[in-house]
Design a protein that fits this description.
It is a single chain. The chain has 22 helices and four strands. By secondary structure, the protein is mainly α. The strands form two sheets. The chain has a two-stranded antiparallel sheet with strand order 1-2. Strands 3-4 form a two-stranded antiparallel ribbon.
């Protein structure tokens, strides 16, 4: 079998998917990063190799700051140990970046680490719970960076820095986010002098909390940190899981090229270490990318094969994920009855509440597209009222708003429109919000506002690569009285029972 994962020759044997990267890692080169801008002005990180003045063994995926820069340059009020100033996002100094060497023509500037956090802080209001949580997350991640590079920079985290981190975390609202940050900071503190620590496990837990809160860019940043920091054999086993989760976040941000790349990396590593479960999930992720690009035959072929291959109790979650995404493709194909059956099987197979909620949301979309709006409304209402996942509550609210338009219910449309307008919708959520608001304004006699909303939807669809937005996410039938087949009728009965509604 052709080798798809390569190891460097250093003592840590870092894992790479490209043989050129493996050849340079720990062999007289260091991994550096610079910030580039795309055509829309969005910041993107670009990684490259540059020669070392003297060979230094890397300790985090081949990224090695020069040892000669062990004395950090810290500006007043902006050092790692200080908290971000209120009113402005914190500014990264040389001591906190992975690539400290100034590029020609840019003397004194260095690429930023965790740029998603700086952007989130700049976009949020100072002192709000969201700002405090993001600020604390950034400070904790910089603590992790300091700990990871301590042997190269010859400077471990200081007592003052730990105090700063604890103070920042104390301002976060009690809950899952604060608990995850406390666990991460404690892992660094307890193992501050050790060569290995469960830091990556804590980073994964923190990223999952961000992902559950639909903070896709921040979660992707943390997953990227995990991938870069992998050092031990246990870290290597976590790489495919991390890649699959990162791919989902990138897909939700509309970054399909990046998602495709990270899924393929996860597939290669999983295949190399014999992790069949993660390898199949990576294939499901690649199929989802293909479907999002409109390449439906390719997506169908991959998903159908995974469904066939995912046999046995240990692969039940994989089969559910493949059935789930195959049902999504059936919706795009307007094969709504088939979608209902696929999605209901996925719903029954999932063991975790989060994925059951996601399957239920898509099942409601299929039922609504069949014209069974009552059952769809019941399912959306359950999700909107009970789900702990913010993005799912957004989807349910969006679809309840769309159903209100189809049912000519202007008061309910306005209720959900105003409620969603107060949310921080991004990416696909923002695009669908604009589309559904345009449909509502058009239905209720506000053509000028409808045109503005449709224009905004078109802009967002272009930005995030969402060809289906223009046609609408749910093509509901005009008839309000639909006779369901026996198989679909059984699904409707189960959904209405879930919502506590008599059939």
């Amino acid at each position: 079998m052709e080798q798809r994962v390569f190891y460097c020759q250093g003592p840590e044997a870092h894992v790479w998917s490209d043989p050129d990267d493996a050849g340079k890692c720990c062999n007289g080169y260091e991994r550096a990063v610079e910030i580039q801008r795309d055509a829309q002005g969005n910041a993107q990180l670009a990684y490259y190799w540059r020669p070392l003045h003297s060979p230094v063994v890397g300790i985090a995926g081949g990224v090695t700051p020069l040892a000669s820069r062990s004395m950090p340059i810290e500006t007043p009020g902006c050092a790692f140990g200080d908290e971000p100033r209120r009113g402005t996002p914190p500014v990264e100094t040389h001591s906190g970046s992975l690539g400290d060497e100034p590029r020609s023509g840019e003397e004194g500037l260095s690429p930023l680490r965790h740029i998603a956090y700086f952007e989130a802080l700049g976009a949020s209001e100072t002192g709000t719970p969201e700002w405090e949580a993001t600020s604390a997350g950034l400070v904790v991640l910089r603590l992790v960076d300091r700990w990871v590079w301590r042997h190269v920079r010859e400077r471990a985290p200081t007592f003052r820095e730990f105090v700063t981190v604890r103070r920042a975390i104390a301002r976060v609202v009690p809950g899952a986010m604060r608990a995850a940050l406390e666990e991460l900071a404690s892992a660094v503190a307890l193992f501050s002098s050790a060569r290995a620590a469960p830091v990556n496990d804590c980073l994964m837990a923190y990223a999952q909390v961000l992902q559950d809160g639909a903070q896709w860019s921040l979660a992707a940043d943390v997953y990227d940190t995990v991938l870069m920091n992998a050092r031990s054999a246990s870290d290597g086993r976590a790489l495919p899981v991390c890649a699959v989760r990162a791919g989902l976040c990138l897909r939700m941000m509309g970054k399909l090229r990046e998602a495709d790349r990270v899924y393929r990396f996860g597939l290669d590593v999983a295949s190399e270490i014999g992790d069949r479960h993660s390898a199949m999930l990576a294939r499901v992720g690649l199929a989802a990318v293909a479907a999002q690009r409109g390449e439906l035959p390719e997506a169908e072929s991959v998903l159908d094969q995974v469904i066939v291959d995912a046999v046995g109790p240990e692969l039940k979650a994989v089969r559910a994920a493949a059935l789930h995404d195959r049902g999504g493709v059936a919706i795009v194909r307007q094969e709504y009855e088939r979608a209902v059956l696929l999605l209901y099987e996925a719903f029954t197979l999932y063991q975790d509440v989060a994925n059951r909620d996601r399957a239920l949301n898509d099942l409601a979309t299929a039922l609504g597209s069949l014209g069974l709006r009552g059952a769809a409304h019941d399912a959306y209402f359950v999700i909107h009222s009970t789900s702990h996942q913010r993005d799912l509550r957004w989807w349910a609210g969006l679809n309840l708003m769309r159903l209100a338009v189809l049912e000519h219910n202007e008061s309910e449309f306005e209720q959900y429109r105003l409620r969603l307008r107060r949310e921080s919708l991004t990416g696909t959520h923002a695009a669908h919000y604009a589309l559904f608001v345009g449909e509502g304004h058009a239905r209720f006699g506000r053509p000028d506002r409808a045109r503005r909303a449709f224009s905004r939807a078109a802009e967002l669809a272009l930005e995030f690569g969402l060809p289906s937005v223009a046609a609408g996410a749910m093509a509901a039938r005009a008839s309000s009285e639909v006779v369901a087949t026996p198989a679909v009728a059984r699904v409707v009965t189960a959904i209405r029972a879930l919502a506590g509604v008599e059939s």
